[in-house]
Amino acid sequence: MNFTKMHGLGNDFIVVEGETKLPDNAAELAVQLCNRFFGIGADGLVYILPSEQADFRMRIMNSDGSEAEQCGNAIRCVAKYVYDNGLTDKETLTIETLGAGVQEVQLTVENGKAVLVRVNMGQPILEGLKVPTTIDANPVINQSIEVDGREFKFTAVSMGNPHCVIYVDDAVNFDLAAWGPKLEVHPMFPRKINVEFVTVRSKDFTDMRVWERGAGPTLACGTGACATVVASVLNGYTDRTATVSLKGGDLLIEWNEENNHVYMTGPAAEVFRGTV
Ligand SMILES: N[C@H](CCC[C@H](N)C(=O)O)C(=O)O
């Protein structure tokens, strides 16, 4: 099987093109190939598939073999892949995902290669029961949750995949490994959850570190960055356009007031190609 290794701000993926549908063994393949010692190594396995509604369809498996509804960093990689490899000559194209339907993507092209990608990530889902959480509120803001005797307050946002946004004093140095895994699988989250720890630095700048559902600590999370800005606007902490600074780099997020859509702008990179 031929693959292309790509990343969005260090959130890295094995990208596979040429299949007409998700292989039956995609979950096992994801666990095997994402393993950083016995496989290629990545946060996820991404398939570029044909679509009836859009130019392309993306499906993404986390490194634990679970399928995610949506992935911001991966969709930027897919957009770069299809343009750079001549599968399309469009600089504005559409990609269909499980969690957000047909999404418009705009490429910035330099020397025939896509260097920056702006994605319409769709509308956030704020009804607690639809994120999903067990909390019947809309939105779920400042919700108390306890793990191992420590109380956190979270805001719940779905971008097609579920997110739990928690504000802390120092996100950059927060002990992700101590608390991320416990929150990920808390019974308040019926489909588990991605956990973002956020420190607001100004009305248009936040630090964020993420423990991802099904992948653990990643260097960046695109949907998590979108959830961070939505939660920060709901809490009155930031404006609707803000930079989210992740361990792997920065994403520019805009939650558009007119159409309620969230836009994410950031880079994507190809690292190497291979056969496995
Ligand atoms: N682990 C996530 C999927 C990948 C999301 C993240 N890598 C992004 O860039 O949005 C989940 O299970 O919902």
UniProtKB/TrEMBL annotation:
Annotated source species: Paenibacillus lignilyticus
Site for Could be important to modulate the pK values of the two catalytic cysteine residues, residues: 163, 212
Binding site for substrate: 11, 62, 72-73, 161, 194, 212-213, 222-223
InterPro entries for this protein: DAP_epimerase_AS, DAP_epimerase_DapF
Keywords: Amino-acid biosynthesis, Cytoplasm, Isomerase, Lysine biosynthesis
Family classification: Belongs to the diaminopimelate epimerase family.
UniProt-annotated catalytic positions: 71, 221
Entry EC no(s): 5.1.1.7
Matches recorded under Gene3D superfamilies: Diaminopimelate Epimerase, Chain A, domain 1
TM helices/strands, residue ranges: none
Signal peptide as annotated in the record: none
One Pfam family of this chain: DAP_epimerase
Localization terms from the record: Cytoplasm
Protein's name according to its UniProt entry: Diaminopimelate epimerase
Role this protein plays: Catalyzes the stereoinversion of LL-2,6-diaminopimelate (L,L-DAP) to meso-diaminopimelate (meso-DAP), a precursor of L-lysine and an essential component of the bacterial peptidoglycan.
PANTHER family: DIAMINOPIMELATE EPIMERASE, DIAMINOPIMELATE EPIMERASE, CHLOROPLASTIC
GO molecular-function terms, A-Z: diaminopimelate epimerase activity
Subunit structure: Homodimer.
Involved pathway(s): Amino-acid biosynthesis; L-lysine biosynthesis via DAP pathway; DL-2,6-diaminopimelate from LL-2,6-diaminopimelate: step 1/1
Catalytic activity: (2S,6S)-2,6-diaminopimelate = meso-2,6-diaminopimelate
